[in-house]
Specification:
The protein is an alpha+beta fold. The chain is 33% helix and 19% strand. The longest helix is centred in the middle third of the chain and has 21 residues.
Length: 131
């Protein structure tokens, strides 16, 4: 079972932002920007393009709802989306609040945010998602 599956099942704590019966969204603990959120299918699949068409479409619709919530909760110009999938063998989408294109650079130093700050950001995103 991947670390992301264990997070979605509640075995490992996370900063949950949104969920439904098929998908789960939580803050990245090594964010490139405040509000950097990961969106995963609960079903464990390594490669995002191994999802069937319906599940891939539904994942993107769910991610769009989360992105809109992130955009309302975290001051930014837009919310960017990236799919890399090399570090964790579980399909996932990165949603990153952007002020400029350089904010999507995964090579830059990651932010170190306090637990309190992470909880606050996740709560704001969750509140916006629920609207």
């Amino acid at each position: 079972m991947s670390i992301f599956s264990r997070i979605a099942e509640g075995e490992i704590p996370s900063y949950k932002c949104a969920e439904d019966e098929r998908f789960y969204a939580f803050l990245d603990i090594n964010p490139v920007a405040e509000g950097h959120t990961l969106v995963i299918p609960r079903r464990e699949v390594d490669y995002i393009f191994d999802l069937d068409d319906e599940e891939l479409s539904a994942l993107h619709v769910f991610a769009a709802r989360v992105a809109r919530a992130v955009g309302r909760a975290v001051p930014c110009r837009k919310v960017g989306m990236a799919v890399l999938g090399l570090e964790v063998p579980h399909a996932h989408i990165h949603l990153i609040p952007l002020q400029g294109e350089g904010d999507m650079d995964f090579r830059k130093e990651k932010l170190h945010l306090s637990d309190e700050r992470m909880r606050d950001i996740a709560a704001r995103i969750a509140e916006e998602f629920a609207k």
